[in-house]
């Protein structure tokens, strides 16, 4: 089988503070886009909410204060340089940002092609955290307050280079995310994330944050015979530490390259897209082996129930 190569890069970001302007953040992204290009990469994954600090950690009531973190157009005047650079360099990218569309707030990512045009848009579906402020808690996780559930499903886009899909942060923990894209023969899943490591909202040792992050990516890649390119925003943001561990995972489930730092850092890997075919022809030949007639509960039931019908 002949190899089909795709040179992917992941651009992890160090912290973005509230005082950092969009211009300053875009300049950092541009520098990493150029670095990726200088290494030969043709697609780059940037993090979730890459243009701002991870603002759902704060409880805010003033709509003007909240909307300052959102984009009303993409590209806008401040993000246009990214699109111009994509076209000039011939490098496509995934970018996560907060989107205000017709008065509705979404946690969104776009896929921008190597010609600088928007290929597709995804709006985060698995929104974690709370809708209401937890009184007495110093650090909140209010994504349900600030974002509606995405309304675009999990599409896969056939670009000239590869079939690419997107998801955002918490989505990566859910097998359904990858399987819906796997059923569209996705070859590369791009995912941006912001995963706090400095507090817990449930009883879990902090070291498990990195373990579960990698476990989820590796399982998703293997079980769906695809590559996964995951970019985090890491380091200490406004006093709140977040995990790094940005990486590129192969269809074997192996992490092929991973960031060293918790700062701005580009990693890259020449991915053999044909590696998927071995799995798709054998152990994960969906057409031969899947039994959807036995999977109905996955879509008909939302929460788990005990066998006797109890909660
Ligand atoms: N941004 C995001 O989705 N973060 C979640 C944090 C969960 S802790 C409330 C994640 O899954 O990493």
SSE arrangement:
Elements: E1 5-12, H1 22-38, E2 43-45, H2 63-67, H3 80-89, E3 92-101, E4 104-112, E5 118-123, H4 143-146, E6 156-158, E7 163-168, H5 175-182, E8 188-193, H6 208-223, E9 227-232, E10 235-237, E11 240-242, E12 247-249, E13 255-258, E14 265-272, H7 275-281, H8 286-289, H9 296-300
Parallel strand pairs: 1-2, 2-3, 7-8, 8-9
Antiparallel strand pairs: 1-14, 3-4, 4-5, 6-7, 9-12, 10-11, 12-13
Helix pairs in contact: 1-3, 5-6
Bound molecules: 4-methylsulfanyl-2-ureido-butyric acid.
Structure explained in plain terms:
By secondary structure, the chain is an alpha/beta fold. The chain has a single domain, classed as Nitrilase/N-carbamoyl-D-aminoacid amidohydrolase (4-Layer Sandwich). The chain is built from 9 helices and 14 strands. Strands 5-4-3-2-1-14 form a 6-stranded mixed β-sheet, with helices on one face. Strand 4 and strand 5 form a beta hairpin. The protein is globular. One of its GO terms (molecular function) is N-carbamoyl-D-amino acid hydrolase activity.
The tally of structural domains comes to 1
In the CATH hierarchy, what is the superfamily? Answer: Carbon-nitrogen hydrolase
Bound molecules: 4-methylsulfanyl-2-ureido-butyric acid
How many strand segments?
14
Morphology: globular
| Major sheet description | 6 strands, mixed
Query: What's the tally of helices?
Result: 9
Uncertain residue segments: none
Mean pLDDT: 96
Beta-strand share of residues = 25-35%
Q: What separation lies between the terminal Cα atoms?
A: 50 Å
Protein name: Carbon-nitrogen hydrolase
Pfam families: CN_hydrolase
EC number: 3.5.-.-, 3.5.1.77
Organism: Bordetella trematum
